[in-house]
Design brief:
With 394 residues, the protein is α+β, with helices and mostly antiparallel strands. The strands form seven sheets. It has a six-stranded antiparallel beta sheet with strand order 20-25-21-22-23-24.
């Protein structure tokens, strides 16, 4: 019995990864380096891709555990292990989406703003938000939460109750339906076409609703989860018309940005209910037809580089401004904040506190922001640097 107990403890230790890739035996170090190289190829940014692989070697047996979101990544890992070590391989490496989801591998967000968290619990940090009508890809389930991937590829956890879980056919049905998009910052879907009627749901700029019919100054709509109601026609636009009339211009970006002045700062927020710095720029650009990456450092990798000049004279209205720490011989660049340039040394951003606000790089201006001027790192230009952007299918 004592020998059997020892064997069970050793096996449990192996399966728990105590001799895993994070602290490998010297004999597997070349293999670990090769797996790390594959991770750098398939998931250089863990915010938008999954490559979580550990390996345990016991004699000629190798146990592979973890998750990837690309079948080719698993194939390459398996081939690498076989060529490096040979012997028997126990394959416990999952490819997401989890097969237990069956064909219900999509969700259509059914609340005005869904809070996407870093872990499957309400107390976890909010990483981003998903808007009503947005289609998300489901990767796996834990309790009442789904690990989801948004249209910008960002990963996180969203409650099942915040969306309609559906199949690919359900997604195609939603995409092909005639829809309206909310264009006012805040509005309501009501039970009846009357301002005194009880709300069915709130709606914020950017949410999508299925259009059923017109009723005078009201539009009869259906939410993704089947709830029905009415929204004021002045608060929405037919989605196809809206999409085809987006003009991604400096003037429109400025107008949208200024319409959000006073919206409070919210860490992880990407909607008119509250935004962090990159959530603000993302919201402004989304409402003008371009879906930016989620975080400031990711946004700093897009568009075209712009040299600001000696006193910001080379910047144009609509350029994105990035703040943080410049690269040095000792430390890498660190982008921690982003805003939108409006011309004449004025920029708009959401630094916290009062939320979206205007500031200036001009020392003589009453809203001069010396701290951000010192932290300015670089600028990127999205407007006019590419064809007219296509609004992502939702």
């Amino acid at each position: 019995m004592k020998t059997k107990t020892i064997l069970l403890v050793v096996l449990a230790a192996l399966l728990c990864g105590l001799f895993s890739c994070s602290q490998p035996p010297k004999s597997t170090s070349p293999l670990i380096a090769a797996i790390d190289s594959l991770k750098a190829h398939y998931a250089p940014d863990r915010r938008v891709a999954v490559f979580d692989v550990t390996c345990v070697q016991q004699g000629s047996i190798v146990i592979l555990r973890g998750e990837v979101d690309n079948p080719k990544a698993k194939e390459d890992v398996m081939n690498l292990v076989h060529k490096s070590l040979g012997g028997q391989t126990i394959d416990s490496l999952k490819v997401l989406p989890d097969s237990q989801l069956g064909d219900r591998r999509f969700g259509i967000v059914a609340v005005s703003v869904g809070n996407v968290r870093t872990n499957p619990r309400h107390s976890a940090e909010m990483g981003t938000q998903a808007m009503m009508g947005m289609v998300v890809r489901l990767l796996k389930k834990h309790g009442g939460w789904y690990n989801v991937q948004l249209p910008d590829n960002y990963l996180g956890w969203l409650e099942e109750s915040a969306m309609k879980v559906t199949t690919e056919a359900g997604v195609e049905s939603w995409k092909s339906a005639t829809k309206v998009i909310a264009t006012t910052v805040f509005s309501f879907v009501r039970e009846h076409p009357s301002l005194s009627s009880q709300p069915v749901s709130d709606a914020v700029a950017g949410v999508l609703l299925k259009q059923l019919s017109m009723a005078g100054p009201w539009v009869a709509v259906e939410l993704p989860d089947g709830r029905k109601g009415y929204i004021e026609r002045s608060s929405v636009d037919e989605y196809g018309h809206w999409k085809n009339t987006r003009k991604f211009t400096p003037e429109n970006v400025e107008a949208t940005a200024k319409s959000l002045i006073g919206i409070p700062y919210l860490w992880g927020g990407t909607s008119p209910k509250g935004m962090d710095c990159s959530g603000f720029t993302k919201t402004v650009f989304r409402l003008n037809g371009l879906e930016l990456a989620r975080d400031a450092d990711q946004q700093a990798a897009g568009g075209e580089a712009v040299e600001k000049g000696s006193d910001f004279e080379n910047l144009k209205k609509g350029d994105l401004l990035f703040f943080g720490r410049k690269a040095s011989a000792e430390k890498a660049e660190n982008i921690s904040h982003v805003g939108i340039y409006l011309g004449k040394k004025v920029f708009i951003h959401t630094p916290g506190g009062a939320g979206v606000k205007l500031n200036s790089f001009d020392p003589s201006a009453p809203n001069y922001n010396e701290a951000e001027k010192k932290r300015f790192v670089r600028a990127r230009r999205y407007i006019g640097t590419q064809p007219v952007p296509e609004v992502p299918k939702k």
